Amino acid sequence: MVEFEDKDKFSHPLLTDVESSSSDSDASVKRTGTVWTAIAHIITGVIGSGVLSLAWSVAQLGWIAGPLSMVVFGIITIISSNILCDCYRYPHPEVGHIRNKSYAEAVSSYLGKTCMWVVGIFLHESYFGFGIAYTITSAVSIRAILKSNCYHKEGHDAPCEYEDSLFILLFGAVQLVFSQIPDFHNMESLSIIAAVMSFAYTFIGLGLGFAKVIGNGQIKGDIHGVPASNTIRKVWLSSQALGDIAFAFNYNIILLNIQDTLKAPPEENKTMKRASCISILITSFFFLLCGCFGYAAFGNEAPGNLLTGFGFYEPYWLVGLANVCIVLHLVGGYQIYSQPLFAAAEAEIAKKHPNSGFVNNEYIVKLPLVPRFKLNLLRLCFRTIYVAATTILALLFPYFNEVLGVLGALNFWPLAIYFPVEMYLVQNKVRAWTGTWIVLQAFRIFCLLCTILAFIGSVEGLISNKFK
């Protein structure tokens, strides 16, 4: 049974420009988030598929550069996230403080509409890229479960090979359903479940890595990392490793979306800074353990996906459980990075078509054994097309490490370095050629050079694997 519900005014938690934002009188959205729900959202976004590639990344960089790179990226993430937390509210001369409910809105408020359009390209490409990466990772994990079970039953000489295509399609079908969640404010339960799953498979990976080190009776690996056939090849692999690490830490693109769920008092920026600091310290600790134990366990043979490296060994049931946790986590992680894109696109469409019933009307749907829910035709059609697009691209480029490296390298500098620093300079009225200005510019240039190197190496790896 379907009931029609008329909406006098379309409202959405994320808008794409400042004029659409409301002041503190924004009563259309009930904010109930706390530091703990924010931590759950952040951990769901940060401890994702990227953690599984860190053993491989440490293997490429070696025992010194590998762990050091993760520490540096963790520090950079804390600094840039603290800067962004202070960008949530913007003093407006007419309506008071405006809520910047997304990264794009903050850039528009502090740097203007031109910069907002530029950052919008990177943001939407990043959201879309996370959807592709998470779809690929889910297929890899499902395949590892079946492969492990097959070898356990048939022996290690059995032809246990499975194609990713079916599993990619299955994950896409699941996301068709979950993508109908209206917005970020309705995702607390899903994020908490996903965060628990992420801790579960991370602990399992750590335990298996530690057990394998004990079983080997030695710590594998060396200072220089995996040897390559030539210097150029070593540079490409090291660059791709840096891109993978950058991908693992990057969550700034959803920070303000998470902050917009927090209740006040206390002030949202104080709560968010506390949640960000706690979350990044926790995730950095786990990243270091996963990367280092994985390298110590496998040495130069460290797999691109840590848990698939244990996929052919006992205890097969524990490896299977870890991969099940990964898939469940990725269901929530996909939504964490897709909801901001859904919101921005749908709000823009609603702004251009305020009188369209297709865009604005909602229907109450009652189905047997299912709680009643609201259905919007625009939401149904747009999000279905979006999920289909991420699924198709995952089918075309099912290369785990290379995709992560490209996404991490492409988005790290503009979204985690350039725009946060630029907003800091404007917000604090830092004059050119002062000490602070010079230090920040040097920091940006250094990070830009690292990003260019990582991007070129990752693209080279993606192309090489595609045409191998």
Give a structural overview:
This protein has 14 helices and 5 strands. By secondary structure, the chain is mainly alpha-helical. It has one domain: Amino acid/polyamine transporter I. The strands form 2 sheets. A 3-stranded antiparallel sheet has the order 1-4-5. α2 runs antiparallel to α9. The longest helix is centred in the N-terminal third of the chain and has 42 residues.
- How would you spell out the order of helices and strands? EHHEEHHHHHHHHHEEHHH
Counted by DSSP, the helix tally is 14
How helix-rich are the residues, as a percent range? 55-70%
Number of structural domains: 1
CATH architecture: Up-down Bundle
Name of the CATH class: Mainly Alpha
Condensed summary:
The protein has 468 residues and is mainly alpha-helical. Helices cover 67% and strands 5% of the residues. A hairpin with a 2-residue loop joins strand 4 (362-367) and strand 5.
